[in-house]
User: Fold these one by one.
Assistant:
Number 1:
Amino acid sequence: MIGAAIFGIPAAVTARVGAFSPLTVLAAAAGVTCVAACVAQLAARYDKSGGPYQYARAAFGEAAGGAVGWLYWMSRASSSAAVANLFMSNVSALPGMSSVPPFVIRDVLIWAAVGINLAGFRRTSGAITALTFAKILPLLGIGVIAGAVALSHEPVRHFPAQASALAEAILLWVYGFAGFEAAVIPSEEATDPRRDAPVALYRALTIVAVLYVLLQFGISRLWDGESPDRAVASVAASLLGPAGRGVVIFAILAAASGHLPGSVLAASRVTYGMASGGSAPAVLGRLSRRQAIPHFSIWLFGIVTWAFAISGGFAWNATLAGGTRVIVYGVTAMAALRDDQRSDARAQVLARWAALAFCVVLLAAQPPIRIMVVAVLGIGAWAAVTIARRRMR
């Protein structure tokens, strides 16, 4: 969940809603928790890889499942491309890196993530875990310090709260929380996904929400309004000196480096699950003899991510990823509603309806051009799946 975008979101939200910015984190966390409740419910009943694809397939049929699976897969590819471009721009600005062509830095990151995944599931999981601690620990430390200092300080600069930008600010934080569903996708390679997945989701959301609230509160009161893309680094430098800026840069690099291997891991298991259901070519479901991993799916995702990265920058890819992810979340909420509810508590049913309403509001708040792009992608994914199934029959 904690990707490189977290270093730009707090300042962007502060500029829109001012002192009310910490409340937008709580609003986004509440909505995402409702979606996560739907994912946790479904994850506890399925132990096959695929995540949102498997849930939509069980609820609405193979065609709908295939469309959702490909939409989520494309969302992962565009999100990874956005992070790769952000990584490229940050590393290129470091001292001594001006002589290295920027595209080399970006391509090394993408293909290194592919290589780590080809080394096997355990090595990939170990690398993701190490990079997770590398980015969380310094961010948590800076968040605690900034939050504590901000309690006794007046805002460095007052930002007017723009009511019209409230939905956009919440959307930015929803983008910051996105990615939690990746934990349930490689279920076939987990020890006990039905027991562990719901607990892991709620624990992760709690930790990330605390970190985001601390960072947003600190930025909203300590940031001077200059250089929004480097607001976290500027605040860290004002609190800890040059060492603080260095810690933030290290965390940015760790966040970007950790996102790509995890994204390749999750996306390759989506196409692996779709291949077993007939919504993707059978070759994507083949496992390597030595590592028992879907190596063709891994290579395909790496190629498409690289293509997205060279065709558009960070903003374009992040916009595409956000729009498609909202649709996937909405379908997952509907799949949870379609699931057997006879033994479910009233609070669980209300959480499903709240998740669906949250996704509808988010989709309605999207700019028209983004909705058009997402609609074209959704129709194209559905048509591709339908045509492929007819040809196979």
Note: The chain has 14 helices and no strands.
Number 2:
Amino acid sequence: MDYEDYPGWGNNREREDSYEQDVRQKLIDLFERNQKKVFFSRQLEVKLEDNYFHWITNRAIRALIADGVIKEETRPLRSAGEIHLLWHPSFRYYKREAASVVKLVEEYSNPNIAGAIGLHGETMVLEGFARNEFVMKGRKPARKHNV
């Protein structure tokens, strides 16, 4: 039995192409409505993830860049890595907005912020357990699995 014999497995590439066309149109509409705004690629992937897998959105973004429908610039981040900025081609003076987006991403990707958010999340979970009268009998580190 082949994968094509299962419902939904035939012509996956055609389905991906139709999803990619859908997300392309959504992105075009988004950039048309926000001609004076700079986005970053991960932001758009997350914004659309309820309906589209991130790789389909990313593929659509790359196609729109190649077609000249949106403009793109890659900048390094202080904490390592890089950010892919995107904007409507009519936005001539995008650099101030782009700098603001990069600053915000760097602020929230700071290890101190991430650590504080993690500790707060742990406190919230423990508080939820206590409110529901769960009892923690101890903590032991996770075992390392030998591979």
Note: DSSP finds five helices and three strands in the chain.
